[in-house]
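The freezer alarm interrupted the setup, so I double-checked each line after restarting. Inputs confirmed:
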Amino acid sequence: MTAFLAIGLLFQTVSPEAVEHAKAGLAAKQSGDIKEAIVEFRKVTELAPDLAAGYVNLGAAMIENHQYSDAIAPLKKALNINPSLTGAEQMLGYALLSSGYTKEALPHLEKAGDPGALGIAQLKLGQFPEAIKNLNAALEKHPNNPGLLYYLGRASGLLSKQAFDALESSFPNSAEAHQSLAENYVALRRLPEAEREYQAAVKARPDLPGLHLAMGEMYLAMPDLAKAESEFRAETDLEPGDAESSYRLGDVLLKEGKVKEAKAELTRADNLRPNMPETLYSLAKARSLTGDAPGAEKNWKRVIELEAHSDLAAQSHFSLAALYRKQGKQTEAAHEMSEYESLKHGPPAGK
Amino acid sequence: MRGVPALIASLLFTFSPSGVTFRQEASPTPAKYLIETMGGGVALLDYNNDGLLDLFFVNGGHLGGADFNRDDPKYWNRLYRQNPDGSFTDVTAAAGLNHAGNGNYGMGVAVADYDNDGYPDLYVTSFGHNVLYHNNGNGTFTDVTAKAHVEAGGWSASAGFFDFDNDGKLDLFVTRYMDWSLAASKPCARQTYCPPGEFPAVTNILYRNRGDGTFEDVSAKSGIASRKGRSLGVAFSDYDGDGFADIFIANDGMEQFLWHNNGNGTFSERALDAGVALSDDGNAFAGMGVDFRDYDNDGKPDIIVTNLARQTYALYHNDGNGRFSCRSLETGLGALTAGSSGWGVGLVDFDNDGWKDLFVAQGHVMDNVEQIDASLHYREPPLLALNHGGRFARADSGENAALAGRGAAFGDLNNDGLKDVVVGVLNDKPVILMNKNANGAHWLGIRLQGVRSNRDGLGAIVIVNGQTQYAQTSGSYQSANDKRVHFGLGDKTLVDIQIRWPSGVTQHLKNIAADQYVDVKEAAQ
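Predicted 3D structure, all chains:
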């Protein structure tokens, strides 16, 4: 804590009694006795009421003891005495934020230049774009911080909701509003309502990119494979360069048993976006079903290279085992089954 | 549909014959006891040998106590005798079948003449204990369970008679679902039936027929008890052509079992190696019903397993050399069954064109599934898919109403050479679908009579006009089929019959006229 760095100066300008209490406070803090530290630092502020560092130490100890609202007064006092104490500014911002005084915390956090806490405060105040910007900045300094990731996700979600709410209230009959409602119904698994909204969206804008893809995914969940195929086909007609819709179309064709068509479409999807594991897995299956065993083997092996430990990798090992058994390659089949078992159920004992 | 008609004129029509008043009582409760949603077995048998198929329905029970209140007639199993005019008479009490046994909540039924006296016997499975009813040959049955030592216990589902050691005496296989009890029961998330993995797996039971009216439990020494399952369906065939009956078991939520008969009284489980344990992606199915027949007329028995919605039904093609490959996609079953949940199933030639078609009794396991997922349905119409040279296309099943279908039994109720279907429906009357195919295709029915082999001829392999049938009454889900072996002949009016009996005797009959039921007695060879 920055405040404790001022302790040397403290010793030079205050009474010996105050210095003793400051030393005792520091010792208590170092030994983990925060309550005793608070008692000692409070005595320092009583014996040296004009010393900003005394209040900083007290506030810091209170924050460490999760007494956020108690910490506000001493930290404010410290800043009244010395407005240039950046550490006190930052701690006061934390204390105010943690006590629910978000609006009041904001200027202190801005002055302190702490983008993480500032982003959280902005999120609470509904300033979502600003919050996202600051939380992203904080994540650059502290990548993989779970708290920052959570708040960034929440801010993004709320910004998204805000936009959709605005869309639905301002343009209720637009294709995009119907699509947004449909997606909400899909999330709630209320598929008949979702289908109704999607149909309204298509009526308004049959050429809206992504709409037929989303509808196809809904039909796939029902599952109504024929309708899903029709929607995926509509999407690939609209966006012939989109690998996702091409993969979806190929995969549903495969599920329908239209293996030759599936193979052609999945090959196209693979060309549009190479090395997509889902595409490669389904393409391997289509190749296997059309008698192209070497092609299937190659694709399943590539899935395993790309995703060594996923469910798709386990499925690829299982499929390779079946392929090798058909070819009479018992050793290879046994190896693939062993890999499959290991991924599905964990390695055998002793391995 | 690539040259395959999507829909053809209806073959099957619902029929409400006079006299059949049965209603299955599953007695669903808010407690969501799993047994409530799993019953519904049906049998087609000619119990009095008058040449007309009779109907037997398995009932559930009252879920207010451990005795299930089976003394109340509402909860009886029911036997209906078919009269010459096509009507039925309830002969349950007269036949002595009105005592289902307190403590039993009924599930399914197996039928065969286990003592080779010429009359079909009944084996009724339950949660509780199972009952073997010996047919006395005079219209009555006697409960011989205790004497025969085939009570089983726990939760039994499908059962089937077959002769695993080819000694001429029919043995009995009993599937058991899980280690479950009313006390251990619980509802799962969102107040519905728990998935099977919530309860421990159990072993199945193999009883060897000693030939003196008693059976020996050989589950352990045969190897069957070496694997625990959550077994619901069972079907038999000789998948590797070694002359010994193999067993396929549909397990729920785990790998399926294929028990290879080693020919020495033991079995080896080979599902994974054979490629029938899991989906082609290596995922477990919710296996429920099963049939084990040759759908593509290559002479080797294939396997179909019915599963839950979003899994598709699994059709495993027998590639020979003990290997199968999953052909659900290429045969069109992926598209036909992706959204459906199936139970009773049969590969049966309904239009007599020489290709076995597919019928499935359908409905989701959870009676509140719509509240959880609006795209799935507790009640569904049955599926009829006609086989066009190995690819299936949906046809009108004759029953467009949605049902909680479970068991399904197949047979020719009116002896017109067309296979009919009876579907067991939870908490409802059964659905009887009469086949009124009018394409003029010819057919042949064969009544087998074993001499050295078991009298029913179960396990015989019969080849007619390039088609192969394995004689069995088992398969489907908790149900028993007409034992007569049926062939659709298309435009053939004269055919040869080849039979390989379980005893090893082979028999050839030449120039047999179509459109009749013929009796074939095992030759002395």
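Quick read of the result. The longest helix of chain B spans residues 333-337.
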